[in-house]
Amino acid sequence: MSTTAQIGVTGLAVMGRNLARNFARNGYAVALHNRTPARTRELVEEFGQEGTFVPTESAEEFVAALERPRRLVVMVKAGDPTDAVISEFAPLLEDGDVIIDGGNAHFADTRRREQELRERGIHFVGTGISGGEEGALHGPSIMPGGSKESYASLGPMLERIAAQADDGAPCVTHVGADGAGHFVKMVHNGIEYADMQLIGEAYQLLRDVGGYSPDEIAGIFRAWNTGRLDSYLIEITAEVLSHVDAATGRPFVDVVADRAEQKGTGRWTVQLALELGVPVSGIAEAVFARSLSGHTALREASAQLAGPTPQALGPTEAATFADRVEQALYASKIVSYTQGFHEIAAGSAQYDWNLDLGAIASIWRGGCIIRAAFLDRIRAAYDSRPDLPSLLADAEFAEEIAEAQDDWRAVLVAATEQGVPAPGFAAALSYYDALRADRLPAALTQGQRDFFGAHTYRRTDRDGTFHTLWGGDRTEVEA
Ligand code: 6PG
User: Fold this and answer.
1) What does the sequence similarity comment in the record state about its family (predicted)?
2) Which residues are tagged catalytic?
């Protein structure tokens, strides 16, 4: 086999296949490999005319087909299959070659793999790729980690195949060292869960309180999509809501089982946030809402519990209510992104990644599932003030929330009175109110901890650590 390919893709299920085609369509010669060679042959038969493919049937043949430094993209299921592929290929590689893992790996695994391979002279680039199968083919948002050196060799190719934002900038950047790319992709997915949950709550409120049909709600979402909520998820929500089930003639959304599944990246975001001590309550509520929806037996056993049955508003009030829901959705969305970016900043500090939050917002403007007009404003906020302590500290976002908050509160009052669950909206508003509170009940928590466990507390009026002798005469001693 002659050395002809500039990049190789192993693992040709739909994401790998589409990524390989994307490279080929952009003028790169692409070596192909798959555990079962039939898939490789199928790709070449079906799409061979799109560019230059070099089909190979063994690991040795695949590696030999690549120009040096070799660039191998691994597109297999995250977890053990990734380790198996690395063990198969690494012994065949040489100093300076690059293995790129494009799966949804846990960033801690990526850190481990990067270190092990670095010791063997091989670059390991864990990269987030967002945009689903269409994105992989037409331009995803790409979040590569790994060494700067590996980006120098790989970056220009990724810039060619990535989505472009409206200003023409490619949606890819060197995110940071070792696991930074997969970390950022994980938080992207956590935000994706929160966005989807908030949209779901808006839908439910429009349906139960607004009294709108799914098709009417699709129209409302389409209108919102022309404004500040303009985003891929709002756009596809309108498509899903207006779809009619062919078998029954009913709205599709009414015939789908209401049990949301998850592959785990949202859960990872929350698990890590707990470890980093970052409150991501909106993302957590989204993960919990999916989990609650799947507890069928628990839901059946609870179906008779007392509570109001929502009463739909009349048409004029419903229109006003819909405008309020838009405000609540937008304000809650700002909070979700605030929390997500806080987690990214905390991860950056913890792992010494020196992440550029503005650049991350920038590469999420196109290609990825959470792409939205709004991200350009987040980019601008961080670009003008890279040390912004929180998105809510940005004057424009703070002002928008200030304007939205009466409606946001009114929507939650309606949800509570009518018994419609809105955990995402509520968590976002509580986070906002907690941040702006003068005093929090944490003071009482400290008192309780000191009472039952002598855990000590600090005072507002002088330095030091104190304990009250609760079981004795309640004098205060310095601890
Ligand atoms: C993306 C998506 C993608 C995928 C997730 C979500 O950015 O392209 O996030 O990674 O759809 O796997 O899956 P779950 O909802 O099943 O967790």
Assistant:
1) Belongs to the 6-phosphogluconate dehydrogenase family.
2) 185, 192
Which residues constitute the domain of residue 158?
7-174
User: Rounded to 5 degrees, what are φ and ψ at 112?
Assistant: -65, -45
Do 384 and 327 fall within a single domain? yes
- 13 marked ligand binding residue: yes
CA 152/CA 301 separation, integer angstroms: 58
Measured from the CB, is residue 263 less than 6 Å from ligand 1? Answer: yes
Query: Does one domain contain both 168 and 191?
Result: no
337 in Cβ contact with 191 (< 8 Å): yes
268: in domain: yes
129 and 190: one domain?
Answer: no
For residue 103, the CA-to-ligand 1 centroid distance in Å is 11
What is 273-305 written as a DSSP string? HHHHT---HHHHHHHHHHHHHT-HHHHHHHTT-
In tens digits, the chain (479 residues) has pLDDT values of 456 999 999 999 999 999 999 999 999 999 999 999 999 999 999 999 999 999 999 999 999 999 999 999 999 999 999 999 999 999 999 999 999 999 999 999 999 999 999 999 999 999 999 999 999 999 999 999 999 999 999 999 999 999 999 999 999 999 999 999 999 999 999 999 999 999 999 999 999 999 999 999 999 999 999 999 999 999 999 999 999 999 999 999 999 999 999 999 999 999 999 999 999 999 999 999 999 999 999 999 999 999 999 999 999 999 999 999 999 999 999 999 999 999 999 999 999 999 999 999 999 999 999 999 999 999 999 999 999 999 999 999 999 999 999 999 999 999 999 999 999 999 999 999 999 999 999 999 999 999 999 999 999 999 999 999 999 999 999 99
Any ligand 1 atom below 6 A from CB of 265 = yes
197 lines ligand 1 (CB under 6 A): no
